[in-house]
Amino acid sequence: MKKAGLALLAGVMALGMAACGQSAQETTAAVTAADTTAADTTAAEAEGDTSAEAAEEGAELSGSITLAGSTSMEKLANAVAETFMELHPDVTVQAEFTGSSAGVEAVLSGQSDIGNSSRNLTEDEKAEGAVENIVAIDGIAVITNTGNTVADLTKDQLVQLYTGQITNWSDLGGESLPVVVVGREAGSGTRGAFEEILGIEDQCKYANELDSTGAVMARVASTPGSIGYVSLDVLDDTVKAFTLEGVEANEANIKDGSYFLSRPFVMATKGEISEQNELVQALFDYIYSAEGQELVKSVGLITVE
């Protein structure tokens, strides 16, 4: 009888221990599951925070930026505006093309956030508070009608052509054809840079003074014996570009200094960039970034680095 009681007691204890073990396993499993769920929740929250931050970062900028100035910078300014607005959908970038001097005046008077100038700023402009921010380098190509047999000019010959000392292409070994001198209007950055580099300010004998780069291209393309100057990036096969002292107008030759007609593309601000509003600062951050400099290259200009 005692033995039967002991056996029964042992069975009960075994069942109890098994039940305890099972409860412990279930408890452990439950804790593990809870921990996993908590970890998943934390990860989801972290991912949600990151996504929210990314969304907030992409949408944090809103408002408008205004640019005014150089017609030669139209292609670059439009490309920058379009790309920046794609990156920041709540930002509007408006660009007007009124000439370099007018652009600098606009930024100094507060009518524009940025003044585009296809020349260096003058000392007077700097004295009034304009800051020269060079964003790209442009070469100036000297062009002629495709029918002109003259292909190369020296610096002295270029000076003589624009100051009226050479009036017929036969003087340079070409056909007997009058020279038609085409240039930009007074106040144009391209004209200012061209005349300053050659040292012929206020000495040029223009037959035509035109108000845009496109107008110069069209006039030279359609006028036999014509000569003009335009930004390097707008060259196409409607005109012929002269080599200057045997050097072709291209990026490599401008960077190494062998091609002498080049100028900066400036986005002027009133005061330093660090003093501008967050939108303007963000625009310059983009322009000077690797992506921005690739955009500069894509429109045919030379990077500042």
What do you see in this structure?
- The chain is of the alpha/beta class and 305 residues long.
- The protein folds into two domains: 63-137 and 264-298, D-Maltodextrin-Binding Protein, domain 2, CATH 3.40.190; 138-262, D-Maltodextrin-Binding Protein, domain 2 (3-Layer(aba) Sandwich).
- 45% of the residues lie in helices and 20% in strands.
- The chain has ten helices and twelve strands.
- It has helices spanning 2-58, 74-87, 100-108, 123-127, 155-162, 189-198, 213-222, 251-255, 278-288, 290-298; strands at residues 63-69, 91-97, 114-117, 130-131, 134-144, 152-153, 180-184, 208-210, 226-231, 240-241, 243-244, 262-270.
- Strands 1, 2, 3, 4, 5, 7, 8, 9, 10 and 12 form a ten-stranded mixed sheet that branches.
- The model is unreliable at 1-58 (pLDDT under 50).
Task: Please write out the topology.
Layout: H1 2-58, E1 63-69, H2 74-87, E2 91-97, H3 100-108, E3 114-117, H4 123-127, E4 130-131, E5 134-144, E6 152-153, H5 155-162, E7 180-184, H6 189-198, E8 208-210, H7 213-222, E9 226-231, E10 240-241, E11 243-244, H8 251-255, E12 262-270, H9 278-288, H10 290-298
Parallel strand pairs: 1-2, 1-3, 6-11, 7-8, 7-9
Antiparallel strand pairs: 3-12, 4-12, 5-9, 5-10, 5-12
Helix pairs in contact: 9-10
Mean pLDDT: 85
Q: What shape does the CA trace take?
A: elongated
Share of β-strand residues? 15-25%
Q: How many strands, which pairing sense, and closed or not: the largest β-sheet?
A: 10 strands, mixed
- State the helical fraction: 40-55%
Q: What is the string of SSEs from the N terminus onward?
A: HEHEHEHEEEHEHEHEEEHEHH
Class by alpha and beta content:
alpha/beta
Give the CATH architecture of the largest domain. 3-Layer(aba) Sandwich
| Span of the ends, CA to CA | 102 Å
Number of distinct helices: 10
CATH homologous superfamily assignment of the largest domain = Periplasmic binding protein-like II
Question: How many strands appear in the DSSP assignment?
Answer: 12
Q: Compute the number of structural domains.
A: 2
CATH topology description of the largest domain: D-Maltodextrin-Binding Protein, domain 2
List the uncertain runs.
1-58
| CATH class designation of the largest domain | Alpha Beta
